């Protein structure tokens, strides 16, 4: 006979909370049914298999757990009344087979997770991608059993040919669908047997993209630019500060404060992954900062683009940053035209420009530190876009005869 227990699983989410699940065990093998409830580990009573009373929603969650156990127990009894032997997988299949799980309901959970992690730009982008998927399937509900290899290939072709999306953008759509599918599996709402991704199915391969940065002469043109309007000059200064600090992202540049600098060093926490960064302040950067320091100002921000934005409101900051970034890119495009720089100018290529000029001059481990990459493999793959000397020398050794 199978046993049914409420348990707290050990795989925590991005908020450091753990999922409550219903565990079904038979013949020393277990399977899990997700409840969709997450709590901090300190609130779980291991002995009584319930949420401790000090949790603000303890009564509600415990009643919910009881109802889920009763529901599962009923299904187990029905399954085991069969004359055929039932293992835990077949029992779970019988419990879940009549329960249709809507892909877009799980997508809403994924979006809520992004909001809770203050990933507002990603949230907005993925809301738009899910709308595209709904438009393609022409309905607002989608069962996971309907997400087949055939459907995904048709959706891929639709995005490439009908919507003229780039291959890299199409990959982002597929990654989103896979992420939501994995979330459903992790909460035991969907069986992995239907999984449409992997070998022999839909394999997601990120296409190589061409990363082009400015060269030394082009950056010197920016440093020595004259006859620019005040907004154009300011945009160039923001770009140069990003470049001087190894390509820090525009959102981090806009939030730089005078209080982030101590003893000639910049110390700040990256917005993207919350990593603490400390870098020497180059003399060129200090020269730019002097132009924006006002003795009588109480404004702590170095650049004033976010001065009227509540920095504690991460959503408003995200929206405003996107708007400022678009405006900076427009200004930089005009500057590039004035300075006869033919490459596409944007805030983002400040990072590529640092990579282009560093080339193979800096040890890869040091570049990893400067780029704030978690893995040296990421750094190697990124920097490969800018290291050409060995390939060039090899080519010359063959054809220069």
From TrEMBL:
Start and end residues of each Tyr recombinase domain: 209-400
InterPro entries named among the record's database cross-references: Arm-DNA-bind_5, CB, DNA_brk_join_enz, Integrase-like_cat_sf, Integrase_catalytic, Integrase_recombinase_N, PsbQ-like_dom_sf, SAM-like_dom
Pfam families in the cross-refs: Arm-DNA-bind_5, Phage_int_SAM_5, Phage_integrase
Domain Core-binding (CB) residue range list: 101-185
GO molecular function: DNA binding
Record keywords: DNA integration, DNA recombination, DNA-binding, Thylakoid
Signal sequence bounds: none
Gene Ontology biological-process annotations: DNA integration; DNA recombination
Similarity comment: family membership: Belongs to the 'phage' integrase family.
Protein name: Recombinase
Source organism phylogeny: Bacteria, Pseudomonadati, Bacteroidota, Flavobacteriia, Flavobacteriales
């Amino acid at each position: 006979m199978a046993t049914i227990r409420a348990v707290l699983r050990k795989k925590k989410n991005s908020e450091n909370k753990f999922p409550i699940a219903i565990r079904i065990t038979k013949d020393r093998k277990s399977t899990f049914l997700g409840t969709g409830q997450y709590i901090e580990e300190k609130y779980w009573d291991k002995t009584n298999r319930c949420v401790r009373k000090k949790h603000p929603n303890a009564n509600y969650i415990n009643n919910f757990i009881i109802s889920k156990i009763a529901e599962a127990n009923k299904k187990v009894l029905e399954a085991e009344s069969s004359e055929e032997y039932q293992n835990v997988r077949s029992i779970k299949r019988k419990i879940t087979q009549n329960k249709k799980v809507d892909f877009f309901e799980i997508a809403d959970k994924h979006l809520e997770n992004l909001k809770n992690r203050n990933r507002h730009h990603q949230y907005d982008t993925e809301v738009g991608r899910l709308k595209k998927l709904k438009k393609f399937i022409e309905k607002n509900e989608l069962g996971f059993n309907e997400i087949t290899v055939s459907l995904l290939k048709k959706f891929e072709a639709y995005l490439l040919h009908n919507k003229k999306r780039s291959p890299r953008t199409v990959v982002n759509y597929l990654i989103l669908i896979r992420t939501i599918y994995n979330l459903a599996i992790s909460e035991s709402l969907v069986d992995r047997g239907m999984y449409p991704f992997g070998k022999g199915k839909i394999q997601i391969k990120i296409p190589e993209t061409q990363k082009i940065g400015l060269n030394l002469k082009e950056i010197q043109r920016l440093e020595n630019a004259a006859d620019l309007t005040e907004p154009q000059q300011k945009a160039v200064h923001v770009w140069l500060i990003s470049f001087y600090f190894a390509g820090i992202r525009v959102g981090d540049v806009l939030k730089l404060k005078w209080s982030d600098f101590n003893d000639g060093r910049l110390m700040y926490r990256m917005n993207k992954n919350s990593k603490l960064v400390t870098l020497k302040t180059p003399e060129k950067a200090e020269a730019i900062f002097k132009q924006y320091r006002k003795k009588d100002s109480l404004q702590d921000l170095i650049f004033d683009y976010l001065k009227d934005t509540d920095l504690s409101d991460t959503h408003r900051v995200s929206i405003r940053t996107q708007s400022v970034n678009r405006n900076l890119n427009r200004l930089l495009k005009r500057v590039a035209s004035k300075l006869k720089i033919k490459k596409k100018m944007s805030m983002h290529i400040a990072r590529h420009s640092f990579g282009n000029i560093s080339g193979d001059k800096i040890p890869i481990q040091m570049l990893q530190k400067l780029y704030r990459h978690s893995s040296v493999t990421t750094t190697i793959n990124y920097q490969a876009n800018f290291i050409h000397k060995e390939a060039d020398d090899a080519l010359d050794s063959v054809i220069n005869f």
